[in-house]
Every structure is written in C-alpha cells, then in structure tokens.
Design a protein that fits this description.
The chain is 23% helix and 33% strand. With 375 residues, it is of the alpha/beta class.
Length: 375
Amino acid sequence: MTSVTEVTEPSSHFNPLNTRVWANGRHLVRCVRIIQETWDVKTFCFNAEQSIMFFFKPGQFVTLELEIDGEQVMRSYTISSSPSVPYSFSITVKRVPGGHVSNWLHDNLSEHDELAVHGPVGNFNCMDYPSEKVLLLSGGVGITPLMSMARWYFDTNADVDMAFIHSARAPKDIIFQRELEHMCSRVPNFNLSVICERTEIGHAWNGYRGYLDHAKLEMIAPDYQSRRIFCCGPTPYMRAIKNLLIENGFDMSKYHEESFGATPADVTEDVLEQAEIAVKQAEDIKDADTYTVDFTTSGMSVQILPGETVHAAASRLGLNIPKACGVGICGTCKVLKTRGEVDVQHNGGITEEDLTEGYILSCCSTPLSDLSIDG
C-alpha cells in the first residue's frame, strides 16, 4: 500500500508557528528535568509533548493534580521560571518535615513522569502592577515568584530598577544564588543583597547577618519609599516586613504579597471540576478509534489517540527521540515512517525531498492511520 503524507506547508517565512498558547485549564505535562538547587530544594521542569507556549504573569501559580497512596491530591506551587522561556515552566519545591506533597515530589517524581496541571492563576504578579522601580523581598523558598519576576525583567531587558533582598537561614540555604549573582553582574539596574540568619562552620559568609530590619533596609535600599514592593515568604517573615513598612510610613497601596498555605478553596473547586470532566472525556473516548504505532527497530508498539504526536507515543514507551524546538523548526526529531499516514504540521524543519522519502518530524506529526516508524 502506498503511504500518503499530508503536509501543511508554511505559506511564507512569517507564517505563525503551529503551536497553542497556555490558558487557565487542565493540561497534561511531562517532567523533563530535575535540578537540585540546595540540599533540601529541587526545581521540577515541565513541558508538553505537543508544543504549548506557557505564557503566564510572573508571580502566578499552578495547581498540580496528583495521586498519592491512592488518594487524589491537589497542591498549588508558584512558577519559578519566566514566561520569557515560553515552551516550558518550572516549580521550585522545598522539602519540609511532614510535608505530604512536597516530600512526595522530592522522593517520587522523576524525569519523564506525566501529570496534570491546572492554571495559571493568581493576582500576585508584576505585570498588573508596572513600576519603574521595584523592591523584591523574599524569605526562604518564598523566592520563587520573585525569581520569576526578576528573570522576566532581566530576559526582556526591562527598564526597571530592581533591588532584590533575599533572607535565608544559612549560606547553604540560598536558593538560585549563582543565577542571582550572574544577573546582578550583567546589568546595572539590578542590586542584590542576601541576609543569612546564621552562619555555619565550613561556610564562609561575608554578607549581611541576622534579619531584615529597618537599619538594613535603609542601608540596602535607601529609596525604598519610592519603590513598588513585592514580598513573599513564610507568614512570620511577611508579618515582620509588613509591620516594618507600616511603622515607617510606607504607602501600602504599593505593597503586594503572596503567602504560603493551602490551595485556595475556589481554585480547588475549579480543579476538581476540571478533573471530573477529564475523567468523563477519557471514558467517552475509550471506544473511539485508536491507532497503533510500531517502532520496528525496538520491536515496541503503543496505542495512540488521534491528535497525539508520534513523539508522545515514543516517550510513553521510554524511547528517546531527540527533540529540541518542539515546533517543527529545527529538524532534530526527524524519523523514517515506513507505513501509514500522518499529518505533519511543521514550520520549515523538513524538506519536500525528505517528506517524499517518508521522513517526518515526530514532534509535530499526528497519525491518520496505523504507523510503522523505523526507530
């Protein structure tokens, strides 16, 4: 049987990319990288098999839909990455004593694992409150939304004067230290100060010690009264900061904070409703036509629904097809199709000659029939 490949060619060099934009709702994502930030903090990086531009406002959060010990659990985490890196997003999680979800993530979530995520949502963000001068105040892992803001300002070369004061327990607990120092060294409008509550033997520290008080604030950011302030950290930290500012006559209309705690009730309700809809949709398509993708070299096969990509099928089998851009530009994920029909929504990453010979880009090819892939 002669194989037929349906191709959507870009009409010009300026044709929009065949990709979707993230909107508040339920999305399946895959963990693609785990970074050990400090001894008790990890960053989990996610993307989607079919490329989504994860645009959000720096400071917003997502809600993870997890199953832990047979129980459905929802937990919200602030996005620590910046929307200036749009094809993935990250959360940064601290292990805490008795932390049901945070400790489960540290101990169980692995690269290539798939989960559902809801969002983004949240009123705490720097886009809705633009300012020429900002003061970012963080305590502990409360640095995550402020790091997203700092990365956004830095990556977009924003004309924003940033003063960033981070409070940590000890030098070994400073999250994102090297990246913060790098940003500070590269642009003149970024002033970084770190305060460590205590020092430990074997860890040299020449910075500020103790807690952020008015004397230190005046020393680090003497013009803080003219800045818009974004603050996040443990409740005692934020209470102290708020009292400090009020006592010194700060205009609190320019103060914005994000607190830790349980996922807001309205967010939980919305997430549960979306999860129920997803289950019903899954049940509705159980009887729908599925296609079989055979990877002939490995001898493995997988059932795939219409709309899923060949790359997604390979990933579910644990087969590694190299992928870089994810939107059909770079050609990294090219594979040989020896049987079947696909719809290739590429963006110039493959030639007509390659398509005629049966090659496809796995990241942007969806099946129209059963397939055989030389892989």
